[in-house]
Design goal:
InterPro entries: ADC_dom_sf. There is one protein chain. By secondary structure, this protein is mainly β. It has one domain. The two termini are about 20 Å apart.
Length: about 80
Protein backbone atom coordinates (compact mmCIF):
# COMPACT_ATOMS: atom_id res chain seq x y z
CA UNK A 1 0.00 0.00 0.00
CA UNK A 2 1.29 3.44 -0.89
CA UNK A 3 0.23 6.19 1.50
CA UNK A 4 0.48 9.86 0.57
CA UNK A 5 0.36 12.47 3.31
CA UNK A 6 -0.50 16.09 2.66
CA UNK A 7 -0.45 18.70 5.43
CA UNK A 8 -1.24 22.39 5.78
CA UNK A 9 0.75 23.81 8.68
CA UNK A 10 -1.27 26.45 10.57
CA UNK A 11 0.97 27.09 13.59
CA UNK A 12 4.34 25.98 14.92
CA UNK A 13 6.18 27.06 18.05
CA UNK A 14 9.29 25.57 19.63
CA UNK A 15 11.33 26.25 22.74
CA UNK A 16 12.47 24.70 25.96
CA UNK A 17 10.34 22.30 27.93
CA UNK A 18 10.11 19.85 30.78
CA UNK A 19 8.57 16.41 31.08
CA UNK A 20 7.20 14.36 33.94
CA UNK A 21 5.59 10.96 33.59
CA UNK A 22 2.86 9.90 35.95
CA UNK A 23 1.55 6.47 36.73
CA UNK A 24 -1.39 5.32 34.63
CA UNK A 25 -3.77 2.38 34.62
CA UNK A 26 -2.02 0.67 31.67
CA UNK A 27 1.61 0.84 32.74
CA UNK A 28 4.16 2.24 35.16
CA UNK A 29 5.48 5.15 33.09
CA UNK A 30 6.72 6.80 36.26
CA UNK A 31 9.41 4.08 36.45
CA UNK A 32 11.07 5.41 33.28
CA UNK A 33 14.02 7.72 33.70
CA UNK A 34 14.03 10.87 31.58
CA UNK A 35 17.69 11.33 30.69
CA UNK A 36 17.41 14.65 28.84
CA UNK A 37 14.73 16.90 27.35
CA UNK A 38 16.02 18.39 24.11
CA UNK A 39 13.14 20.80 23.59
CA UNK A 40 9.43 21.12 23.12
CA UNK A 41 7.22 22.01 20.18
CA UNK A 42 3.57 22.74 19.43
CA UNK A 43 2.03 22.21 16.02
CA UNK A 44 -1.40 22.81 14.49
CA UNK A 45 -2.01 21.32 11.06
CA UNK A 46 -4.63 19.81 8.79
CA UNK A 47 -3.53 16.34 7.66
CA UNK A 48 -4.94 14.38 4.74
CA UNK A 49 -3.93 10.92 3.61
CA UNK A 50 -4.70 8.88 0.54
CA UNK A 51 -3.97 5.19 0.12
CA UNK A 52 -3.39 3.17 -3.01
CA UNK A 53 -3.00 -0.60 -3.29
CA UNK A 54 0.17 -1.33 -5.25
CA UNK A 55 0.54 -5.10 -4.79
CA UNK A 56 -0.75 -8.15 -2.96
CA UNK A 57 1.43 -10.04 -0.50
CA UNK A 58 1.15 -13.54 0.88
CA UNK A 59 -0.44 -13.19 4.36
CA UNK A 60 1.71 -15.97 5.86
CA UNK A 61 4.92 -14.30 4.66
CA UNK A 62 3.83 -10.88 5.94
CA UNK A 63 2.71 -12.02 9.39
CA UNK A 64 6.12 -11.55 11.13
CA UNK A 65 6.10 -7.88 10.05
CA UNK A 66 2.40 -7.14 10.64
CA UNK A 67 2.90 -5.56 14.06
CA UNK A 68 6.39 -4.16 13.56
CA UNK A 69 7.94 -7.11 15.37
CA UNK A 70 9.83 -8.57 12.44
CA UNK A 71 13.42 -9.64 12.52
CA UNK A 72 14.59 -6.09 13.23
CA UNK A 73 13.47 -2.77 14.64
CA UNK A 74 15.40 -1.09 11.82
CA UNK A 75 12.87 -0.82 9.01
CA UNK A 76 15.64 -0.04 6.49
CA UNK A 77 16.91 -3.60 6.99
CA UNK A 78 13.57 -4.83 5.65
CA UNK A 79 14.18 -3.10 2.29
CA UNK A 80 14.62 -5.88 -0.23
CA UNK A 81 14.06 -3.78 -3.36
CA UNK A 82 17.77 -3.14 -3.77
CA UNK A 83 18.69 -6.86 -3.49
Amino acid sequence: MRVTLDSDLAAYESGTGSLSLGEGPNGPLSDLEIAEVLGASYTEADLRTTQENVTTVDPESFLPYAFGAGRSNDWLELDNLSD
